[in-house]
Specification:
alpha/beta; 2 domains; 3-stranded mixed β-sheet
């Protein structure tokens, strides 16, 4: 597929998506949203892809919604539908992907530029990055499920401060809040990101990672410990009987790299449903 707002590259099991509107600091528009979602769906269906990295071209990750295109009507979806600008339904939701998604926040990430990464699995930042859930400063509320994801991932008190003030924070502050797990110097940033992604691609069992991801997201809303225990016990018992469990243990004992046999496209267990 030809893209206009993103770039996609695949190397050694790592798919890198680059938000590619550097002249607009990668401001998010309808084309970018549709292309990003389609790329997620296509890469998730490709068993050669073990992990997906999303970063930004130029000095920014994503400066939020492209306000210059629609002005004061940016968030008025009724008016935008009248002009034929209805939002495109996502081809896949990130939490239903079988591949982990790393948000490599290389520069400013505000508005949708940070709420979308909160739907992904791992977020890391360059030292110069800045982040902000700025919606209340634009007369709207935080979107892209961030009222759900942020509190669950960093705790209610921290979420309240970030979402209700809309303030911009530094990469180091984002690390303290728990928004990102690592902050690396700008000059080393993408090398460190690739090192993390390559570790997943080269050393983990793809179906095991897919199941782990689905259960992590799926159990976020489970408040009965017994049901959560039953879900992970069933999945653990199932994986223990599969070829990759035998291969993983045998490779460890023989001090060699494992040769995984199972593929997410055909070996993902049907008793673990998509998240609604």
């Amino acid at each position: 597929m030809a893209y206009s707002a993103i770039l996609v590259d695949l190397k050694d099991g790592v798919a890198t998506i680059t938000l590619n509107r550097p002249e607009k600091m990668n401001a998010y528009n309808a084309a970018m949203g549709a292309e990003l979602s389609q790329a997620f769906a296509d890469l998730d269906a490709n068993d050669e892809v073990r992990v997906v990295v999303v970063t930004g071209a130029g000095r920014a990750f994503c400066a939020g919604a492209d306000l210059s295109a629609t002005g004061g009507d940016t968030f008025n979806y009724d008016k935008r539908r009248e002009r034929g600008e209805a939002p495109v339904r996502p081809a896949i939701r990130p939490w239903n992907m079988k591949k982990p998604v790393i948000g490599a926040i290389n520069g400013p990430a505000v508005g949708v530029g940070i709420t979308l990464p909160m739907q992904w699995d791992i977020r890391v930042a360059a030292e110069s990055a800045r982040m902000g859930f700025v919606f209340v400063r634009r007369g709207v509320i935080p979107e892209a499920l961030s009222l759900w994801t942020v509190a669950r991932q960093i705790g209610l008190a921290r979420a309240n401060e970030l979402l209700m003030t809309g303030k911009i924070i530094s990469a180091r502050e984002a690390l303290e809040f728990g928004i990102v797990t690592h902050v690396w110097p700008d000059a080393e940033f993408m090398d460190k990101v690739r090192e993390m992604a390559n570790d997943i691609a080269q050393n983990t069992a793809p179906v095991s990672v897919a199941i782990t991801k689905r259960l992590i997201w799926g159990l976020l809303g489970e408040d009965e410990m017994g049901k959560a225990e039953a879900a992970d016990h069933k999945a653990f018992q199932w994986t223990g009987k599969q070829p990759d469990a035998h291969e993983g243990v045998t490779a460890f004992l023989q001090k060699r790299k494992p040769a995984w046999k199972m593929k997410p496209s055909k070996d993902f267990p049907d008793f673990i449903p998509e998240i609604k």
